[in-house]
Amino acid sequence: MKITITCSKGGEAKTTTVILLATAMTEVGLRVEVWDADPQGDSTEWSYTAEESGAPLPFPVVPVNRRAVKRPIPHGLDYVLIDTGPHTPEVVQDAIDTADFVIVPVVPSPRDMKRVWDTLETVTHRPHRALLCRADRRETTPQDTLDALDARGVPRFQAEIARSVNLVKDSTVRPRSTYGYDAVLTELQEAIR
User: Fold this and answer.
1) In this structure, are residues 106 and 116 in contact, taking their beta carbons and an 8 Å threshold?
2) CA distance 121 to 102
3) Whether 102 contacts 130, CB under 8 Å
4) Superfamily of domain covering 2-191
5) 135, 143 contact by CB (below 8 A)
6) Higher pLDDT, residue 116 or 19
7) Most distant CA pair in the chain, distance
8) CB 155, CB 130: distance < 8 Å
9) Tens of pLDDT along 165-179?
């Protein structure tokens, strides 16, 4: 199954979602590969840094181009997760068009929502859900964001990813936790049955 993680806004936790969801998948015995379709190569860089630290990621990260993103998943894998960048619309659209499911990470910020709406318009032809990331429930913006998604009928995960200092520290090494992405995986598997 091919899962594309995308948002046309940078800094929306796409790479974090890819790496931590892939980690959650490997922890339950699934075979997964990450395709890094972002020219910035953040997933690839995370993989290199983790390997250099002596604790490599538990799955391969493969840089891919527009042509490669359209190919079927390799034999023997359960999932391919595609990390997309905000500035390569053709690659992103190909990754969406060939995906079995699309995840749109959403950081609770009123000014970021315009870009989220734009992204959500490009994924309506594929099964998809929004995922609230970096949520701090001491603030009102996470609930405001969820209310806005619900008001427009946007499918979303019930699980949400809390803002975490430890998650930021783990953003260049093999994650010590899945930081709630195990719950996202459970919902994802239910959604694609």
Assistant:
1) yes
2) 12
3) no
4) P-loop containing nucleotide triphosphate hydrolases (3.40.50.300)
5) no
6) 19
7) 46
8) yes
9) 777 777 778 888 899
- Which residue type, as a one-letter code, is found at position 140? T
Q: What is the pLDDT at residue 11?
A: 63
Which pLDDT score is estimated for 7? 85
Domain limits of the chain?
2-191
Q: Which contiguous run of DSSP H or E holds residue 67?
A: helix 66-69
DSSP string covering 109-125: -GGGHHHHHHHHHHSTT
Cα–Cα distances in Å, from 50 out to 26, 59, 134, 175?
Answer: 16, 11, 22, 9
Tens of pLDDT, residue by residue over 47-88, are 999 999 999 999 999 999 999 999 999 999 999 999 998 778
Distances (CA, A) of 109 to 9, 80, 105, 180: 12, 29, 12, 20
∠80-192-103 over CA atoms, to 5°? 60
Q: What share of the chain is helix, strand, coil (3-state, %, to 5)?
A: 40, 15, 45
The count of residues in the chain is 193
Q: 5: which 2 tokens?
A: 């993680």
